[in-house]
Write a structure and sequence with these properties.
The strands form two sheets. Strands 8-10-6-9-4-1-2-3-12 form a nine-stranded mixed sheet, with helices on both faces. The protein contains nine helices and twelve strands. About 30% of the residues lie in helices and about 20% in strands.
Length: about 280
């Protein structure tokens, strides 16, 4: 029996970017997949725009919304995971457009005892604007387009033009801070539940993803990197406030000297969350 996979997509008041993500995913998904849009409190206007522009999927698409109380990405992701029964979870941000083989690449890398840390390509403000207005279709771009964008400074790398599923050096057994990204991250649902998901006690932007990875390592899992395989195009946006980054960083440092596995406030603590609205979109 095929493994069921859910793509949990975090969003907040940026429907133009989210629609590009969904359009890239739609042709890659089959009936065995699930899409859950984990909404961190978008306005009614943005939710209505999403409904109007939702592309056609052959799998179920759900929208999980909770009230806007500030930057609570960890809770939104946990709520999104709760709305799915899939065996495998792929977390994706609503401004990260997956490449044309993203779904099969993540499923090929899925392996017991590992989580997958995806890769990303940063886009400039200029190229991002062309993408969200429909002037540029990233998945239809040629290698020449990629070279031109890199030469012009519109992207930061060319790795996404190489698809190498069996590339060496993917697996790491030790915790490492570098390039941990919850905007493109996958793991088995059983492992996510075992560590109680993302820790919602991390306030503001920063390092809740490193904390999750640290606790997964404490659980006994190893890291598998998704370079040359799972790249996403990260659309440009203004930098979020990072007022809490140093505090969150210090928390992870302190936890690295312990064997803590479970989030102090995580997915199991959301079982009776108030104000959460779950809607089937198709």
């Amino acid at each position: 029996m095929a493994v069921t996979t859910c793509f949990v997509i975090l969003t907040y008041n940026r429907v133009d970017a989210l629609v590009q993500v969904l359009r890239a995913l739609a042709p890659q998904c089959t009936a065995q997949h699930e899409i859950v849009i984990a909404d961190d409190g978008s306005s009614a206007a943005h939710v209505a725009a999403l409904r109007a522009q939702l592309p056609k999927f052959s799998c179920a698409v759900s929208h999980v919304w909770h009230p806007d109380t500030g930057f609570t990405a960890s809770q939104a992701r946990n709520l999104g995971a709760m709305a799915s029964q899939a065996e495998y979870l792929v977390f994706l941000d609503g401004d990260c457009v997956p490449n044309a083989h993203f779904v099969k690449a993540h499923e090929a890398l899925a392996e017991a005892g590992y989580f997958v840390n995806g890769n990303r390509v940063l886009l400039s403000e200029r190229l991002t604007q062309q993408v969200v207005t429909g002037e540029v279709d990233l998945l239809a771009a040629s290698a020449w387009d990629g070279l031109r964008w890199r030469f012009q400074g519109d992207t930061n790398k060319l790795a996404h033009w190489v698809y190498w599923p069996q590339a060496p050096g993917r697996c790491e057994s030790q915790f490492r801070w570098k390039q941990i990204r919850s905007c493109n991250f996958a793991l088995w649902r059983r492992d996510f539940m075992a560590v109680n998901g993302f820790d919602e006690s991390f306030e503001g932007w920063g390092h809740e993803d490193a904390d999750l990875v640290l606790r997964l390592h404490h659980l006994g899992l190893s890291r598998k990197n998704g370079f040359f395989s799972t790249e996403v195009f990260h659309l440009w946006h203004r930098q979020n406030s990072r007022h809490a980054e140093s505090v969150n960083y210090q928390r992870v440092i302190e936890r690295s000297h312990t064997d803590i596995v479970e989030a102090s406030r995580g997915i199991r603590d959301n079982l009776s969350s108030e104000g959460v609205v779950v809607t089937a979109l198709n």
